[in-house]
C-alpha cells in the first residue's frame, strides 16, 4: 500500500479540504435529531409553542440542506481526485509493463498484466473513492452519534456501546478473510482473461476445425471456476452485514425496552427517546457503512498488492559498464548459451561473427533456437553464458535507446494497428515521406499506392483487410523506413511468392547493403545468398559457412536444399 500512498500524497491538500467539507456536513447532520427532541419536549407539548416549532423546524430544513450540499460537494471532489489518482497510476503501470523484460512478462503472463491494468486499478479506484466518501462520514456519524447520545441518554447509550466489541470482532475477522480471498478471485480472473485471449486470437482456427463447442465448454469451466471463487469470497464477506444487523437490531430492541421503562418511570421524556432512536438509526447505518468500507478495502488492498508487484519490479536488464574491444566484425556471439526455464539450455555455445554490411542467414527446424537467438540480440533476455557484442561493445553496456535505434525488426508473428498505413509505417517515429516511399519500393509494397487513399488507407485490427503477403510487406516497410544499421527478419517472407521474395532480397542488397542483415527463414532460397549461413538444430549450430561450403559438409542443409530446390540445389 506504500506505493499507492505515493500517488495519493500529491493530492493531500485537496483531500484534506474535501474531508473538512465532509466533516462539516456530517456534524450539521448530527444536530438534526437533537433539534427534533427540542421540538417534541420543549415546544410541541407546551401551549403556544407553535412559533417555536416553526422556528426550529425551519432551522432543521436549513441544516438538512447544508448537510446535503456539503456531502454533494465533497463527493464531487472525491470523484475528481480519485479519477486523477487512478489515471496517473494506470499510466505509470502501463509504462512499467512496457519496460518489463521478456522474462518478467513470461513470469507474470499477459493475461495477468491485462487484469492488473483493468480490474485491479478499478478496485483500487473504488477503494480510494469510498474511503474519501465513507471513510470520513461513517466514523464521524458513529463517534459523533455515540457522543451526543451519551450526553442525551447515558444509560441507553451504554446499552448500545456494549455491542461494539462484538461488532469490532466481526469487522476484523472480515478484513483478515477478505484480502486473501479477493487475491484468489483476481488470480481466477487472470485465467479467464487468458482464455478469452486465446479464443480471440485463434477464433478462425477454432471455427475451421469445428472446435467451437469444445472451446465453449473449456471457457465454461474457467468461467465456472471464477464464479465459484467469487461466490465463496462474496458469501464470506456477506456474512458480515446480516451479523452486524442482527447485533444492532437486538441492541435496538433492548434500547426500546429500556427506553419505554424510563419514560414510564418519568425519568426521561418521549422526545429524547425518539431523538435517541434517530441516533441509533444513524449509528446503525454508520456501522453498516463501516462494514462496506472493509469489504471494499479487502478488494482494493488485494488489487493494490498485485499492482505494487509490477510497479516495484526491479529492472533485470540494467545497463552495465564495459570496455569496448577492437573488433572489425559488426555482430559477435561469443560462446553464448541461454535457457528460458534454467533447467536445460534452449541454445548452447553459439559462436560466430558477422561483418558490417554482411548478411547472416539462419535456418533449421522448428524449435531449433532461431528466434531465441534474435531475442538475445534484441536483449529481450540476457544470455546465461558467453557474450554478445555489437561493434566491439557488449550488448549489456548499450542503453536501450542506443540498441533499439540500431535495429529494424520484423517478427514472425508481428502486428498491425487499426490505423492508416502511414501511421503503421511511422509507428511514432519521426520519418519523412521520402523515406517511407523508398522503404515501400524496397519492400515490394507498391500495392499500397493502389489502395484508396494510398498511405492514408485505413487498416482493420491486425490488418485483416490485407492479405498475408501484403501484411508482411507493410511490416518490412516499417522496419526499413527507420534506415536501421542492423536488420532482423524473422521468417517474414513466408507468405510471399518466390518471385516477390527474390526481388525483395535483391532490393535489400542494393539499397540497404550497408546494413547488417540477419534473416531467419524456413526457405533455403531466402538464405542461400547470405555471406554466412547457420544451420541450427536443438539449440546447437550443426553447420556454419556459405551455401557451397554447407552443401559439402552439412548433410541436413544439403537435404533441405534437395527437398526444396530439387535439381537447382547446387
Walk me through this protein's architecture.
With about 575 residues, the protein is of the alpha/beta class. The protein has two domains: about 1-310, Up-down Bundle (ABC transporter transmembrane region fold), CATH 1.20.1560.10; about 330-570, 3-Layer(aba) Sandwich (Rossmann fold). It contains 20 helices and ten strands. Strand 1 and strand 2 (about 345-355) form a beta hairpin. Helix 5 packs antiparallel against helix 6 (about 155-160), helix 7 (about 165-200) runs antiparallel to helix 9 (about 210-240) and helix 15 crosses helix 17 (about 470-480). The longest helix is centred in the first third of the chain and has 50 residues, at about 50-100. The two termini are about 65 Å apart.
Question: What layout of secondary structure does this protein have?
Answer:
Blueprint: H1 2-8, H2 12-44, H3 50-99, H4 102-108, H5 110-152, H6 154-161, H7 164-201, H8 203-208, H9 212-238, H10 240-264, H11 270-311, E1 329-338, E2 347-355, E3 359-363, H12 370-377, E4 385-390, E5 393-394, H13 400-406, E6 407-410, H14 421-426, H15 433-442, H16 447-450, H17 468-481, E7 486-490, H18 498-511, E8 516-521, E9 532-537, E10 540-545, H19 547-553, H20 555-565
Parallel strand pairs: 3-8, 3-9, 6-7, 7-8
Antiparallel strand pairs: 1-2, 1-4, 4-5, 9-10
Amino acid at each position: 500500500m506504500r506505493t499507492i500512498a505515493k500517488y495519493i500524497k500529491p493530492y493531500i491538500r485537496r483531500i484534506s479540504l474535501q474531508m473538512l467539507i465532509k466533516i462539516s456536513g456530517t456534524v450539521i447532520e448530527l444536530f438534526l435529531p437533537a433539534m427534533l427532541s427540542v421540538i417534541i419536549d420543549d415546544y410541541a407539548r407546551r401551549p403556544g409553542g407553535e412559533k417555536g416549532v416553526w422556528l426550529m423546524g425551519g432551522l432543521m430544513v436549513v441544516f438538512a440542506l447544508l448537510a446535503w450540499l456539503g456531502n454533494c460537494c465533497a463527493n464531487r471532489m472525491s470523484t475528481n481526485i480519485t479519477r486523477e489518482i487512478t489515471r496517473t497510476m494506470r499510466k505509470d503501470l502501463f509504462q512499467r509493463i512496457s519496460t518489463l523484460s521478456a522474462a518478467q512478462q513470461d513470469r507474470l503472463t499477459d493475461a495477468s498484466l491485462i487484469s492488473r491494468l483493468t480490474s485491479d486499478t478499478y478496485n483500487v479506484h473504488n477503494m480510494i473513492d469510498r474511503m474519501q466518501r465513507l471513510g470520513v462520514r461513517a466514523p464521524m456519524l458513529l463517534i459523533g452519534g455515540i457522543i451526543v447520545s451519551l450526553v442525551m441518554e447515558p444509560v441507553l447509550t451504554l446499552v448500545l456501546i456494549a455491542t461494539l466489541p462484538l461488532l469490532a470482532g466481526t469487522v476484523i475477522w472480515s478484513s483478515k478473510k477478505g484480502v486473501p480471498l479477493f487475491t484468489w478471485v483476481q488470480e481466477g480472473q487472470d485465467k479467464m482473461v487468458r482464455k478469452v485471449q486465446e479464443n480471440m486470437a485463434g477464433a478462425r482456427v477454432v471455427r475451421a476445425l469445428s472446435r467451437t463447442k469444445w472451446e465453449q465448454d473449456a471457457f465454461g469451466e474457467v468461467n465456472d471456476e471464477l464464479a465459484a471463487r467469487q461466490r465463496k469470497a462474496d458469501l464470506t464477506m456477506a456474512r458480515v452485514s446480516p451479523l452486524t444487523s442482527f447485533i444492532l437490531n437486538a441492541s435496538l430492541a433492548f434500547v426500546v425496552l429500556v427506553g419505554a421503562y424510563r419514560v414510564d418511570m418519568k425519568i426521561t421524556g418521549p422526545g429524547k427517546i425518539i431523538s435517541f432512536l434517530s441516533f441509533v438509526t444513524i449509528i446503525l447505518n454508520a456501522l453498516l457503512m463501516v462494514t462496506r468500507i472493509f469489504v471494499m478495502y479487502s478488494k482494493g488492498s488485494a488489487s493494490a498488492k498485485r499492482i505494487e508487484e509490477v510497479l516495484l519490479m526491479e529492472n533485470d536488464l540494467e545497463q552495465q559498464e564495459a570496455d569496448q574491444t577492437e573488433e572489425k566484425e559488426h555482430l559477435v556471439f561469443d560462446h553464448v548459451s541461454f535457457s528460458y526455464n534454467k533447467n536445460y539450455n534452449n541454445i548452447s555455445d553459439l559462436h560466430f561473427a558477422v561483418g558490417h554490411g554482411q548478411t547472416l542467414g539462419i535456418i533449421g527446424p522448428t524449435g531449433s533456437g532461431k528466434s531465441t537467438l534474435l531475442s538475445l540480440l534484441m536483449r529481450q533476455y540476457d544470455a546465461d553464458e558467453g557474450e554478445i557484442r555489437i561493434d566491439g561493445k557488449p550488448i549489456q553496456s548499450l542503453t536501450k535507446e542506443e540498441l533499439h535505434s540500431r535495429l529494424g525488426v520484423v517478427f514472425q508473428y508481428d502486428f498491425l494497428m487499426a490505423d492508416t498505413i502511414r501511421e503503421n509505417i511511422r509507428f511514432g517515429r519521426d520519418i519523412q515521406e521520402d523515406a517511407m516511399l523508398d522503404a515501400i519500393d524496397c519492400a515490394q509494397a507498391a500495392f499500397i499506392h493502389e489502395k484508396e487513399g494510398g498511405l492514408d488507407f485505413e487498416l482493420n485490427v491486425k490488418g485483416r483487410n490485407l492479405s498475408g503477403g501484403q501484411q508482411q510487406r507493410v511490416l518490412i516497410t516499417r522496419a526499413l523506413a527507420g534506415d536501421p544499421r542492423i536488420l532482423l527478419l524473422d521468417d517474414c517472407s513466408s507468405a510471399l511468392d518466390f518471385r516477390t521474395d527474390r526481388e525483395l532480397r535483391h532490393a535489400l542488397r542494393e539499397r540497404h547493403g550497408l546494413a547488417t542483415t540477419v534473416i531467419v527463414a524456413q526457405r533455403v532460397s531466402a538464405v542461400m545468398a547470405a555471406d554466412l549461413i547457420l544451420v541450427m538444430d536443438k539449440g546447437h549450430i550443426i553447420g556454419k559457412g556459405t551455401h557451397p561450403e554447407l552443401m559439402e559438409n552439412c548433410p541436413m542443409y544439403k537435404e533441405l536444399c534437395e527437398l526444396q530446390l530439387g535439381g537447382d540445389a547446387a
